[in-house]
């Protein structure tokens, strides 16, 4: 009986040994396997060279200070802090009609005409707080700064309050095309700080980017809202030298 069991066990062992190459052969690569069988080895080969650690290292979120909007040369940190959309109650919904816009006098200098001409081409561009380019929109100081930079190559300060501190003071009766007109729109009836700026055209009219929901347009200084908030006029250096 033990001899019979031994022979049976030996026969099973021999059968397993004889079949072993059949299982090992595909793993050793000695025979071609169907395409479907090669998917797993190839995929594993690709995964083996993938380095997730490097990818994670590149995706680390930078510190808050490092992702702040870049400040270009000559740009103050307060850029985009205009408050011209904070006290818009009572501001006229529309400006001066196209056919009522003042025309420039014949004696207006070429420099001033260039300024006004460029400013007028930007009419109907929407107001955007902090905006400084026609492709995105303008706030008041962004509009003024863009016109002066592209028309005469003059770089003005970055917001209405700092623009008010620059240039030559001009009496209302002596204003010329291209002079800057300033307003106190952030407080009650003109009692607040300088918060809005536009470019004077002629005959009491000025062009500006008014406030949220509006577009670049021409308004009149004689209109009640603007006359109550008018803070004065300034003449940028380039215009003062050309007068």
Automatic annotation (TrEMBL):
This is C40 family peptidase. Residues 109-237 form the NlpC/P60 domain. Residues 1-24 form the signal peptide. InterPro entries: NLP_P60_dom (IPR000064), Papain-like_cys_pep_sf (IPR038765), Peptidase_C40 (IPR051202). Keywords: Hydrolase, Protease, Signal, Thiol protease. Belongs to the peptidase C40 family.
